[in-house]
Amino acid sequence: MKYVVLIHSNMQPWGHPTIDFTEVGRAIPADERAAMGKEFDELLAELSASGELVSGLALDAPSTARTYRWEGKRPVSTDGPYAESKEQLAGFFVLDCATRARAEELAAKFAGPGDIIELRPEMEF
């Protein structure tokens, strides 16, 4: 079963890795942030080797987004995401896990300082 790990963050300024651009992340000493980054790189290598990591992307700043909404009888586009939240979607990873429990175990490892992680299963048609 495929799961998406969505990373929501309120980075100021926008950048990746998110730990370097959140208030709580910048408060962590540089050597600890480097160790956390190394652990995350090792996690991604492990998931890639096991075949559980399908893909992942870091997303550009929300200000670069276009939003499409249906108005009347056609779609209309506008600048920006206009989300009702401080946190914006910063990136995502797609995992292919045998069980939901395994996906939940892995999603917890994606949580970083200043981020909110959402785990959502793929909808099967």
TrEMBL record:
Lineage: Bacteria, Bacillati, Actinomycetota, Actinomycetes, Propionibacteriales
InterPro entries, sorted: Dimeric_a/b-barrel (IPR011008), YCII (IPR005545)
PANTHER family according to UniProt: BLL7171 PROTEIN, BLL7171 PROTEIN-RELATED
Gene3D superfamilies (UniProt xref): Dimeric alpha+beta barrel
Domain YCII-related: 24-109
Family assignment from sequence similarity: Belongs to the YciI family.
The protein, known as: YCII-related domain-containing protein
Organism: Kribbella pratensis
